[in-house]
Amino acid sequence: MKTIIRIFNIIIMALSAAAAVCLFAVPAMTFKSNIALNVKTFSKFIPSTDYTTDINIPQLLGTDVIHVGISFTMDSEGMRKAMNGDKATIDDMFINNNVKDICNTLHEPIDLITDFTIRSVIKKAVRQEITAQVEAAVEEAGTGNAQEIVEDELGDVYFTNFANALYDSANEDDATIDSVSNVLYWQIDEALKKADNGSGLYSSKFDDSKKEEIKNNLVNTLDGLKLVEPDGKLKKIGYLSYIYISDYLKQELQSKVSDPTTLEQGATESLPTYADRLLNLFVLTMMPDMFYQIIGYVSLGLYIGLYVFAGIWGILFLITLIKTFTKKPWTLFGPWFWFFGSLQLIIGLGLTIVGKFVIPGLDIAFTGLPIRSIILAPRTYTLIPSIIYVVCIVIAIVYAIFKSAAKKEAN
Predict the structure, then answer these.
(1) pLDDT tens digit sequence for 226-240
(2) What single string gives the DSSP state of each residue in 174-187?
C-alpha cells in the first residue's frame, strides 16, 4: 500500500513542479475582448445638412454592429514597472496599441460613410443647381419642359457621374472654390447642350454671367460641410470626418495639455494619422489617476501572488519529496494549500469563465455606452495552475482512501 502512496507522491510532485513552472512561464496577465459597437452612433460622423437627413448608416454599411477588439499582455517585467506606478509602461501596455488598433478598425467604415455622404450631398446639390439652370433656360427660351429634361434626357446616371467628377475635383490637394465652381460651370454648360442636342436653344442663354451665381450656391453647400478655408481653399473633402474629429479633439485638449504645439498637425502628417494621434492623446489625457492606481494595485497583487502561489506549490513538492522516503510516506496537503489553491481557482479559471460566458449575457444598455455586447477573455498566470489544482482535488480524494488504508496497515 505504501508503494501505491509513493507512486501518488511522484504524481503530486510532478503536478506541483508543473504548476510552479507555469506560474513563471506564461505572462502575468493577458486580456482579449470583442466589443460590438452600435453602428447608429456613427451618425455623428455625418455632417448635419438638408442633404443628409435620409442617409441610413446601418443600411449603408450592411450591418448594425462593428466589432473592435481590446487586448494587452502583461509580462513579469511590465508587472514590476506597473506596480511601481510607471505611467509610460501602463500607457504602452493598456492604451496606445489598443487605440491604434481601434482606429485602424474604424477607418474603413468612417471612410465609407464619409465618401458616400459627400457624394450624396454633391449629387443632390448638383441636381438642384442644374434643375434651377434648366428651368431658367427653358423659361428664357419659352419652350420645353424642365422636368422632362432633368428626369428623362439627363437622368440619374448622368447626375451620379457629374457628382463623381465634381467630387474628384474638390478632393484634389490644391482645390479651391474657384477651381471647383469652374468645373461645375462647365459641366452645367455640357448638361444644357445635352438637353438641347447642340441646337443652342438652352446653352446659348448660359454664359459667364452665371458663374458668380453658381459659385455662391456652391459656397453655401460646401460651407455647410465646413470645408471652405478663409482664403477660398478647400479642405480635402475625402477627409471630412477626420477634419471634424481632429477639430473637436483639438478644442477639447486645448486647455488640458502643457504644450499646445503637440495639438498642431505635422507638416508630413496626414489627416487620418493626425486624428488618430489626437484621439490617443485625448484618451491618455482624460484617463483618471484612479485608473493608474488600480493597475498599480492589481499588478502589486499579482506580483505578490506569483511568489506566494509558487511557494505553496514548492512547499507541497518539498513535503511530498521528504515524506516519500520515510516510513510514513503520506504527504500533507494542509489547509494552507486548499485556501491558496481555491484563490488560484477564482482568479484563474473562475475569472476566465465569468469573462467569456457570464458578462456577454449581461444587459449593458443602462450604461448609455454605444456598445451592443462584450465578450471578455482574461487570463492570468494562475489559469493552468488552477486546472492542476482541480486535478489535485480529485487526486486528494483518492489519495485519502489509500492513505487511510496505509495507516491501518502500518499500525
Answers:
(1) 788 888 788 887 787
(2) T-BHHHHHHHHHHH
Residue 204 φ/ψ, nearest 5 degrees: -70, -25
Cα–Cα distance list, 103 to 117, 218, 230, 352 (Å): 20, 32, 30, 27
CA dist 184 and 162 (Å) reads 9
Percent helix, strand, coil in the chain, to 5, is 70, 10, 20
Buried b (16+ CB within 10 A) or exposed e, 289-317: eeebeebbebbbebbebbeebbebbeebb
Cα–Cα separations (whole angstroms), residue 384 to 8, 76, 136, 352, 381: 20, 17, 79, 11, 7
User: Alpha carbon 35 to chain centroid distance?
Assistant: 8
The DSSP secondary structure of 110-131, one letter per residue, reads HHHHHHHHHHHHHHHHHHHHHH
Please report, for residues 128, 144, 159, the alpha-carbon distance to residue 218 in angstroms, rounded to integers and kept in the order given.
11, 26, 16
Q: How far is CA 198 from CA 100, 161, 202, 204, in A?
A: 55, 20, 9, 10
Task: Tell me the whole-structure pTM to 2 decimals.
Answer: 0.71
Q: Do 15 and 391 form a contact (C-beta atoms < 8 A)? A: yes
The full length of the chain comes to 411
Name the amino acid, one letter, at 312.
I
Query: Measured between alpha carbons, how far is 118 from 121 in angstroms, rounded to an integer?
Result: 5
Q: What is the pLDDT of residues 310-331, one digit of tens each?
A: 999 999 999 999 988 888 888 8
Residue at grid coordinates 493626425:
274
Q: What is the dihedral of CA 332, 336, 342, 348, to 10 degrees?
A: -100
Report how far residue 35's alpha carbon sits from residue 264's, in angstroms, rounded to the nearest whole number. 31
DSSP type of residue 29? E
pLDDT digits (tens, 9 = 90+) for 180-190: 888 888 888 88
C-alpha cell read off for 266: 505635422
Contact 203, 193 (CB under 8 A): yes
pLDDT digit string, tens, across residues 162-220: 888 888 888 888 888 888 888 888 888 887 787 777 677 767 767 777 788 888 888 88
Alpha helices in 62-154 (DSSP H): 76-83, 87-90, 97-141, 146-148
CA dist 31 and 288 (Å) reads: 21
Task: Please provide residue 155's backbone torsions phi and psi, each rounded to the nearest 5 degrees.
Answer: 85, 170
